[in-house]
Amino acid sequence: MSVILASLGAFVAGFVISYFWGRSRQAILETKLENEINQAQEKIKLIEEARQSLENSFRSLSSDALQKNNEAFLLLAKTQFENFQSAAKNELDKKQDGILDLVKPVRESLEKVDLKLQNIEKNRIQTEERLKEQMRSLTETHQNLRTETSSLVAALRSPQTRGQWGEMQLKRVIEMAGMLDHCDFVTQTSVTDDQQNRLRPDVIVSLPGGKNIVVDAKTPLNAYMDAMQAESPDLKKQKFTDHARHIRKHIDDLSKKAYWSQFQPSPDFVVLFLPGESFFSAALEQDPSLIEVGITQNVIIATPTTLISLLRAASYGWQQERLAENIREIARMGQELYKRLSDMTEHFNRVGKNLGQTVQAYNDSIGSLERRVLVTARKFQDQKILGQINSLPELANVDQLPKELRIPDLN
């Protein structure tokens, strides 16, 4: 028990001692900590003041440096910009010159195109004006044509006028075919037949070899014009039938005149000329046998187209006849020229022979002169009695003789 109490007392004593020692140690540590805190605060204050001072210093230094740097940068930037601007300007000038060189042909082409367009527009305006003028002229011509057509229709109602118009169309066709009236055809020739009836064809076409073709123009237009003016189809058909009947009557009448027997030599037919293609085609529609009837009665119906073909053939025959005549004339002239050349050749040969005889006589005379005269004359020179007179020259013979001219025999 005493041991326990002793142990307990020792423990309490130790605890008390430890407590007071710990308190003392804590107070020391707290004092030391407070001092260190104060020192730290002082250091912090100093550091803060230093920081503030450094900050002010850096701010001042950075401001100055920034200003200087800005000035240097601006100066450098200005210098660089000026250099860049100068280089860019030079480069731009070069590129501009290059672009101008590239654009120049395009500009010239555009100028040419613009000039061409102006000329086209000018020509278009002129063409449009001419077209308007032609349209006005065409309108006036059409109006005049309608008026003249109406007048022509009214005039063609007269048989005498129709006959003159048919003859005029026939003359135009003959001229278009090249059969001129002063050499290839004769107009308005009249004869009498066996019954003493007076026959007068419109045209007698002269063929090579002295042959003739008789052409008579007919203009049966009354029924045709009535048909063209008819309003009903039945009336139109009736008038065209009358028109075909009138042409058939002209075929019969012309066949009875037998012109081919009055104008010999002539083929056994006569040409019935209708001055319009439509006149014959309208009649054929109503009476297709007209061509056969005409051939049977030795009457050939011809329109301007077919008559031109016939007359062109006659004109070609005349051309061949004239060509043959020219060939015959050239042959005759060639024979005459050859005869004259032959006669001239004989004359030249006689002249050559005479020249040869003259040369021979000249050479003989020279020989005689040398042998009989000059030999004695040269002796005077040998005797020195002639003074300074030149010696007699030597006389040479003529060795060349004229050539004989020959002309080849062309027979």
In short:
The chain is an alpha/beta fold and 411 residues long. The protein has helices at 2-155, 159-176, 222-229, 233-257, 259-262, 277-286, 290-296, 304-382, and strands spanning 185-187, 191-192, 198-199, 203-206, 212-217, 270-273, 299-302. It has a domain at 158-329: Trna Endonuclease, Chain: A, domain 1, CATH 3.40.1350.
Give a written overview of the molecule.
Strand 4 (203-206) and strand 5 form a beta hairpin. Helix content is 74%, strand content 6%. The protein is α/β, with parallel strands linked by helices. Helix 3 (222-229) runs antiparallel to helix 4 (233-257). The protein has a domain at 158-329: 3-Layer(aba) Sandwich (Trna Endonuclease, Chain: A, domain 1). The model has no long low-confidence stretch (mean pLDDT 74). The strands form 2 sheets. Strands 1-4-5-6-7 form a 5-stranded mixed beta sheet, with helices on both faces.
Largest sheet: 5 strands, mixed
Q: Which architecture of the domain at 158-329 per CATH?
A: 3-Layer(aba) Sandwich
CATH class of the domain at 158-329: Alpha Beta
Spatial gap, N to C terminus: 201 Å
Strand order of the biggest β-sheet: 1-4-5-6-7
Q: What shape does the CA trace take?
A: flat
Number of strands: 7
- Alpha-beta classification: alpha/beta
Task: Please provide the ordered H/E string of secondary-structure elements.
Answer: HHEEEEEHHHEHHEH
Estimate the mean pLDDT confidence.
Answer: 74
CATH topology of the domain at 158-329, what is it called? Trna Endonuclease, Chain: A, domain 1
Percent range for helical residues?
over 70%
Strand content: 5-15%
Number of helices: 8
Residue ranges: pLDDT <50 for 5 or more in a row? Answer: none
Radius of gyration, in Å, reads 70 Å
